[in-house]
Amino acid sequence: MKLIYKLSFLVLLTGFSLQTSNAQVTMERRIEGGDGIFHLQEVQTILTSKDDTIKVMTVLPERMRPKGYGDIVLKKDDEILMVNAKRVKTVQEFEELYNALEIGGTLKMGIRRKGDLMIESFKKIDPEDMPAGAHIMIRTDASGEEGDHGGGMIRAFTMGGGDSGDMRPWFGTGLILGEEEGTLKVMRIMEGMTGALGKADIKEGDEIKSLNGQEVETLDKFFEMYEKLDTGSKVEIEYARAGKKMQAAFEKPNMQGKMMLRRN
Fold first, then answer.
1. Which residue has the higher pLDDT, 250 or 141?
2. Which of 126, 138, 162, 221 has the maximal Cβ count within 10 Å?
3. In this model, does residue 152 exceed pLDDT 50?
């Protein structure tokens, strides 16, 4: 039986809202044959392993890291080979070494990036020193068939503080859109989740102006229009960066997630 790990990203909003306060958002991804995941909170990076290889699956924006950790460079698909001079092949081995390290101790990682070897190191943080903000929970459900959720592990980490206003994930694109001062903007980009965009040059702070030729100014209007499009149909957006108008086009991806709003 093939083992499937389903990764669910549950964003519990404490610093901002999605249409309503105290809401919950669920995003899902699947990795077939994986060993599980580990969240390296100091650098807001999610690791996974498969076939005796630990890889960086997702790197959240640097602004979500605690102070003093912004200069650590990790990229999607980096391979973690060593931790404090010990060879590691699974996220479980990585986690054991991480947990054995005292707070304030140095974590030194040997990394392979596209054939090049390098070292990154930083001090293990006290969880109480993580910045306040929205929290993300990651659930890995080991299951033999889709829809069989079977339990699994639950992890939680801080997404980062200082956010305000309405925000909503644009599933399948890796973008989180939001309204700021009456303008629809790209608020966050989830590295490793933007494959559907192809070579589109979209960055945080870009202002979304239109979707398939129709002007959009609000989250509700944008997603109302987008959800009417069929999977695989062409998506064209016009956006602005520092006053310069730009365009991007791609096919609407299959929805790899779901959103749930819940009032407490």
1. 250
2. 138
3. no
Q: State both tokens at 262.
A: 């819940």
Q: What token pair was written down for 30?
A: 């699947």
Give the predicted TM-score (pTM) of the model.
Answer: 0.55
Is residue 97 one of the residues assigned to a domain?
yes
Q: What is the tally of structural domains in the chain?
A: 2
Hey, what amino acid is at 89?
Answer: K
In a domain, 245, yes or no: yes
How many other CB atoms are found less than 10 A from the CB of residue 221? 14
The pLDDT value recorded for residue 195 is 82
Domain of 219, in residue numbers:
167-258
Q: Cβ–Cβ contacts within 10 Å for residue 154, how many?
A: 12
Check if the beta carbon of residue 105 is closer than 8 Å to that of residue 123: yes
Q: How is residue 224 written in tokens?
A: 């109302």
CA-to-CA distance for 104 and 42, rounded, in angstroms? 12
**Domain-located, residue 149:** no
CATH number at residue 208: 2.30.42.10
**Greatest CA separation for the chain:** 56
Q: Do the domain assignments include residue 24?
A: no
